[in-house]
Amino acid sequence: MRYKITIIATLIGLAVCAFNYTGYDPHNMVFFMFSVPAWFADMFMDIHNVSVLLMYALTVLTWALLGFITDLIIARDRRKNSSTA
Fold first, then answer.
1. What is the pTM of this model?
2. Is residue 24 assigned to a domain?
3. Cα distance between residue 5 and residue 14, in whole Å
C-alpha cells in the first residue's frame, strides 16, 4: 500500500500550523477553519486555556489520520477492482 495521501495530508497539517505559528494568521481564522481538534476544544472549553503546542500536534496527527484512512479506502478499492478483473 502506498501512503501518498497520508504524506500529503500530514504536510497540509504542518502547513496550517506553520502558517499560524509565523503570525500570518493573526486572528487564527485559517487555523480554526482547518484544525478539527480546535473545533472541539473551542466547543468544550475556553480556547485560551489550551496549550498551543498541543493543538498543533493534534492538528498534524488528525490530518495524518485522515490521510491514512483515505489511503486505506483507496487500497481496499484497488484490491477489490483487481480481484474482479
1. 0.90
2. yes
3. 14
